[in-house]
Write a sequence for this structure.
């Protein structure tokens, strides 16, 4: 069992230290429901700094620092942290602050997947001790489904992604308002928009200036956070096949993916069955590297049609050598998906599909059973205006919409065709809410 002196030192050091400067995230959590708050997402997406944000908000509301306990389970001084050490942690805290018994105390347990018996401890802290518990877990180590199963309805689960474009601007000191859109600040926004399209939104990458360093960081993420963690977690035997699948998925960003077609392409190189490949694809989704979007329609249609693949961060395409200036339309579509996914994380009733008829429309947003909007991404609309408009009108009629949003590089305007309003808007303006 860990010595209480060590646990007390860890508690006190966290309380006495200054909270770091941080970029405010747009995620909101509900603290008034009497449940543990679980925050999941890829490593390096900013979960720890979001905990600091919540701590800072509590302090601003008048919560004493002594009632806030932060424990990082990647701290080598408390590794390995065993089941019985949770009791020692609680005892150590109340020995330091006996006057806090019976008061609302906030425990922030960071990277909790590194401990044994955390599920039982969280339930006890939250229910018997009256403590508000926050936990984080990296999706490559602790799946959201595992948290839900382990805590059995006693938790609210939130997921954090890398920076959105609006958060990236905030990190660069730009708060976007009406004046910034129309002033010379617009050129700075466009500069960072180009950077976002090339290197994505992982906070560490955003804050680095050197281009080569950005690429090296992203490559290291792929090697360790994704490839290495998947191999370790799932005991993958054919590592080369997994690595090549990851590269293939990255190279086919925003494109249809058919498992059987991929299987035919690689079966001479890797003697893997379709079921094994499907498991590998499931792993990529489990750890939040890739997402697959189905065709809008009935279940049988969804099963018959290919799914489109998107990445958690567009920077990975650049880091693996697949980026060219001709790919900007592909990356733009992935960026739109990430913004829509961010909205779906805020609203659990939202679902994202693509539309396929005679023409294709990139995104259909559904809330419950109601189709809310259709979005087409057309980076250089002058090259395909007639086709894009035709597809948008077809989809609007089929989906019973009177408006379709078309996102472009820079064109802006509105047209009415056959009673359907086509709203054309630059992608960067849509991303910042204008």
């Amino acid at each position: 069992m860990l010595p209480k002196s060590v646990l007390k030192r860890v508690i006190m050091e966290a309380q006495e230290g200054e909270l770091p400067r941080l970029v405010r995230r747009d995620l909101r959590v509900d603290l008034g429901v009497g449940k543990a708050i679980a925050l999941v997402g890829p490593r390096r997406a900013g979960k720890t700094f979001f905990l600091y944000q919540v701590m800072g908000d509590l302090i601003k509301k008048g919560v004493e620092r002594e009632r806030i306990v932060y424990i990082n389970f990647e701290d080598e001084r408390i590794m390995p942290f065993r089941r019985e050490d949770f009791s020692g942690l609680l005892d150590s805290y109340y020995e330091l602050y006996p006057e806090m018994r019976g008061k609302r105390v906030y425990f922030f347990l960071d990277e909790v997947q590194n401990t044994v018996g955390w599920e039982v401890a969280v339930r006890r802290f939250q229910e018997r001790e009256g403590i508000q518990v926050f936990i984080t877990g990296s999706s490559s180590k602790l799946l959201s489904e595992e948290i839900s199963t382990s805590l059995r309805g006693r938790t609210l689960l939130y997921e954090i992604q890398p920076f959105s474009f609006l958060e990236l601007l905030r990190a660069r000191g730009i708060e976007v308002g009406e004046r910034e859109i129309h002033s010379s600040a617009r050129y700075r926004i466009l500069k960072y928009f180009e950077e976002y399209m090339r290197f994505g939104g992982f906070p560490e990458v955003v804050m680095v200036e050197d281009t080569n360093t950005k690429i090296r960081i992203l490559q290291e993420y792929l090697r360790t956070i994704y490839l290495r963690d998947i191999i370790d977690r799932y005991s993958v035997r054919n590592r080369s096949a997994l690595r090549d699948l990851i590269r293939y998925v990255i190279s086919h960003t925003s494109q249809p993916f058919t498992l059987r077609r991929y299987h035919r392409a690689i079966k001479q190189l890797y003697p893997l069955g379709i079921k094994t490949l499907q498991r590998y694809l499931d792993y990529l989704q489990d750890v939040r590297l890739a997402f697959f979007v189905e065709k809008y329609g009935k279940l049988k249609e969804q099963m018959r049609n290919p799914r489109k693949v998107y990445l958690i961060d567009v920077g990975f395409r650049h880091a693996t050598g697949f980026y060219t200036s001709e790919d900007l339309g592909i990356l733009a579509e992935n960026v739109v998906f990430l913004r829509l996914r961010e909205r779906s994380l805020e609203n659990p009733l939202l679902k994202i599909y693509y539309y396929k008829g005679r023409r294709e429309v990139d995104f259909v947003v559904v809330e419950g059973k109601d189709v809310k909007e259709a979005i087409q991404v057309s980076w250089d609309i002058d090259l395909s205006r007639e086709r894009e408009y035709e597809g948008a009108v077809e989809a609007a009629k089929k989906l019973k919409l009177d408006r379709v949003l078309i996102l472009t590089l820079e064109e802006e305007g509105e047209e009415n065709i056959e009673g359907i309003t086509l709203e054309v808007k630059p992608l960067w303006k849509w991303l910042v809410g204008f």
